Amino acid sequence: SHTAKFGSPFQSLGQRHRSKTSASSHNPSCSPMGLSLLILLPLSVAFNLDVENPAVYTGPNGSYFGYSVDFYMTDSSVSIIVGAPKANTSQPNIREGGSVFYCPWSLSQSQCSSIEFDIQGKSRPVRPVDVEFKSHQWFGATVRVHEDSVLACAPLYSWRTMEDKPHADTTGSCFLSVKNFTKFVEYAPCRTEFRGRKGQGYCQGGFSADFTREGKVVLGGPGSYFWQGQVITAVKQEIVKAYYPGFFLTSVEGQIQTKQKKEITFDDTYMGYSVAVGEFSGDDDEGDVLSFDQVSILNGSLDMLKTFTGEQVTMCSVFKFMVRITSRMMDLLVGAPMFMLRDSDGRLEELGRVYVYMQNGPLDLTPQLPHLTGTQTFGRFGSSITPLGDLNQDGYNDVAISCPFGGENKQGLVLIYNGHAGGLREKPSQVIAGQWASATPSALPASFGYALRGGKDLDNNGYPDLIVGAFGADTAVLYRSRPIVNTSATLTVYPTMINPEEKVCTISRGNETLVNLSFCLSANGKHLPNHLEFNVEVQLDRLKQPQKGAVRRALFLDTQLPALQRTLTVPNGARVCSDTKIFLRDEKDFRDKLSPIFVALNFSLNPQAAADRYDLRPILNYQTAELIEQKAQILLDCGEDNICVPDLKLSVHGDRKEVYMGDDNSLTLTFNAKNDGGGAYEAELYVVLPPEADYSGIARNNESLTQLTCSYEMENQTRYLSCDLGNPMKSGTSLWAGLRFTVPRLKDTHRFVQFDLQIRSKNENNSQSEVVPYKLEVVVQSDVILQGVSRPDKVFFPPPNWKLTKNVMVEQDVGPSVQHTYELVNNGPSRISHTLLQLKCPMKLQSNRFIYPLEVTTEGPVNCTTHNIVNPLNLKVRCCGLTNPYKSFILKCLASYKVEKMPYAILPKVTPSGAKKMVTPVVWNKPDSTYAVPLWIIILAILAGLLLLALLIYVLYKLGFFKRTPYGTAMEKAQLKPQAASEA
Questions:
Q1: Quick one: 758 exposed, middle or buried, by C-beta within 10 A (0-12, 13-18, 19+)?
Q2: How would you classify the pairing of strands 851-852 and 880-882?
Q3: Residue 845 pLDDT more than 80?
Q4: CA distances in angstroms from 15 to 30, 223, 230, 274, listed in the order given
Q5: How far apart are CA 275 and CA 290, in angstroms?
Q6: What is the pTM of this model?
Q7: What is the CB neighbour count within 10 angstroms for residue 923?
Q8: Which residues have a Cβ under 8 Å from the Cβ of 979 and sit 6 or more positions away?
Q9: 876: how many CB neighbours lie within 10 A of its CB?
Q10: In what order do the strands lie in the sheet with 398-403?
């Protein structure tokens, strides 16, 4: 569909057909849009095109400036030629006739000017004015340069035949300038007496064109003879001789052309769609390479030598064009820009492909595999191919391949492929992206890379350059090649085995373990400045995957830093070296003693260096290793080979085997770590925690346990604990230590919780112990207690003033109240979802009512049912009561419970159950009315007691009990004096 929008010369093909096939069978939307065929010279590396400072030339808007490009270099001028097939010119009454522009090159970049090839104007003076039709003729669609000559063609040029039929023949026409634009002649070999579809009426001569090495013109006319197509060649000197202004039909001496095939099977083969020139037959006579859905090699006499057919020979998968690669013999490159490949889902994607055929001998062409396949869907990879010349002077050519609708916003890509003795490398060394937007965004893309031309050294700096056309943006871009610097670097570290015990006294640091470091750079190349400046950086011990908390183990002695930066000036073709010293840090400052200490040298050309006289800065050969590494090893106590092989063993014990649902489940794991082999460096206990567990700390309740240093970390959703066991963990080490955990997040979906423990070291050999799992069984268990209390704890019956009555109205009429309270407690740890509590009490005694239930009250999520009616008489409720008791008895109630369900998928090992007896003693009271004591007996008893007391006092008086001497006897007095004196 792009072709119809672009107005490609090919769009007129297929609109008329020998067998009256509908136009859809020759859908111009499938056209490869004027692709070209080229012969290449040997390939090389191409990575040095200066994309930062290109020379950009622009033409009139909408002119398709850049549709075709070529170099124009003479002794007196250096420029590029750009075709603009839709440009308007000064020719009267001609719309979009097309033009060719001359664009001189210089560092200041001058403007382009139109070249007047056709000075005849609209028509020839000797013919009627409507004989020629030059509007929309696409003059400049094809331009080719040979020495001081320029060939420019208008493939859609039309003229009315001499029979004056109502239609014109699209024969195509070309103009040839010679002697630096001092003479212009027209060359229209398809404008002959063979008119119409059966002849050369739709030839479109100049649709493709090329020059041989000697300057012979080769034209392709894909529309001749019912679109069989043809190739026409003539010597340019004879073309100049045969030209006579005013004559339509001319005869060029020595012109040869392919003939019409009589077989109808040759129709629609479009020979001449793309042409290129090279040597394949071994006779030193350049043959022509022609193509559309096939590639044919013709000799200088246009006899068929060899034909290649593409994988997808359909109108929309064009197998087309291109040539040349290695050292002595021509090679062939063929582009198929609409090649389709199935993606991973089986759908066809148009990616484009370029086939490379290496010439082993005359016409002995072998395909290079794998083929080069594009990566941009609908990018038209292979639309244009050009040889670039030997950019890095290694004897092989480079190739530029376009992808004009690829890249960001479909602005186009040009990919540079390197050559070598075996052909083309599979990956491009440089990808140039178009930076120019379309001049008419709604109509077509910028098409950067649609036209390519390379292999010429425009600025004379010794390296060939590249022209890229972007006709959708009316732009042509010149990329110049930068000089290539071939560089080699060396890095030396001595000693490579560092002994931390060997220290040297230094002025700046004291006693240090020193290491010598030396690095050298050499540079050479063609067309380089006399001196090259390099930025050099040396990095010490920079790990590719830095560990947490890792430090640089070595530093530069002078700067105390892990990096050194210097600028080296290297003469072209010379070698320059630099020496310095580094020192090893103290062993207590780092852990890693096993890993090599890498020393990395990185270098680059100084971007601030002055440009050369061509305003270009050199570039390093892309194959140069800009990063060089050496390493040194720390000497270990591991024997002559410096390799330690540990023998690590681990045993684990825990203070519990079960964990309970609902509990925090504190756990202490005690382990024994042993090493029966060589030293284990950076040895650690590695504990993988299950999701249900948390780390609490180190066990410190036992002096025999080693106090470890542990860190708790997470990596990829895995929580783990790492504890330092020594660096190194020496041979014969055996240590005990303990770790504390909790396991609070148990789930009933897992029957076990597992800790995985392992000793790990950084040793290269036998660095780990076996993984020791410690399993805990997940258990459901609850401790249930049933408690009860009686209020009051003893009942006296009958209560005061109580009388047995048949008409019971209120609670007091029943008897004394008794309240039994029961409490069911779950002390856990697991939860209970359903428990049955049963209460049994004696409701009758010897056929008499014994207990009258008045009310049942509950607290919490409890539902109660009873076999007896509570408060059958509807009394005012305060509590339950006792009725018709006997003299003495005990009220006994039995409460029992059973856990029927727990909310876990795991069943408990023991189902909680139990019972509780509630005892309330009942004491009998005698009635007050039957056994009362008379009042007079009480008064008489009191009077008798008083009389007896008076009689006793009288008797004592008579006996002298109340008549004692106040001072006592003389002896008593004598005994009292000292005591009295003492007391005084």
A1: middle
A2: antiparallel
A3: no
A4: 13, 11, 18, 20
A5: 5
A6: 0.65
A7: 12
A8: none
A9: 10
A10: 385-389, 398-403, 413-417, 430-433
